[in-house]
């Protein structure tokens, strides 16, 4: 599911979703009335968001602004930009695929929650 949809569902059904991950999303903060960041008001779960370093739609400024929006609402989570990546880095059928970056969220979650796959164990 896309990041915009995940934020919308987390906002609409906060008791049903405790966490979501957004991998190489487009800009999540825009000046448009339907900007995804407006859904953050209803989010109660944690977020992990991994932006690509090279992405025309998610500039460093928009990433910083999204991080600020999370902080302003007290939403827990991690927002990071993965060095050396290009938008689409988690899609194995694209030339920009980066396995280490694509699997980072699993290692991050496993090491912070004590569950899931260990950081050293590859994800298949």
Describe the structure.
This protein has helices at 3-12, 60-73, 99-113, and strands at 19-23, 46-54, 77-86. The protein is an alpha/beta fold. A three-stranded parallel beta sheet has the order 1-2-3, with helices on both faces. Helix 2 links the parallel strand 2 (46-54) and strand 3 (77-86). It is globular, with a radius of gyration of 14 Å.
Strand content: 15-25%
What is the number of E strands? 3
The whole-angstrom Rg is 14 Å
Question: Roughly how much helix do the residues carry, as a percent range?
Answer: 25-40%
What's the gist of this structure?
Helix content is 31%, strand content 19%.
Please tag this protein with its features.
31% helix, 3-stranded parallel β-sheet, 3 helices, 124 residues, single chain, globular, alpha/beta, disordered C terminus, 3 strands
């Amino acid at each position: 599911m896309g990041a915009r949809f995940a934020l919308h569902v987390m906002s609409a059904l906060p008791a049903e979703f405790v966490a979501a991950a957004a991998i190489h999303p487009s800009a999540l903060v825009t000046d448009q009335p339907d900007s995804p960041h407006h859904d953050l008001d209803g989010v109660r779960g944690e977020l992990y968001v991994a932006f690509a370093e090279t992405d025309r739609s998610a500039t460093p400024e928009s990433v910083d602004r999204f991080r600020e929006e999370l902080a302003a609402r007290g939403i827990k989570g991690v927002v990071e930009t993965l060095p050396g990546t290009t938008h689409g880095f988690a899609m194995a059928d694209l030339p920009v695929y980066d396995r280490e970056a694509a699997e980072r969220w699993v290692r991050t979650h496993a090491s912070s929650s004590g569950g899931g796959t260990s950081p050293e164990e590859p994800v298949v």
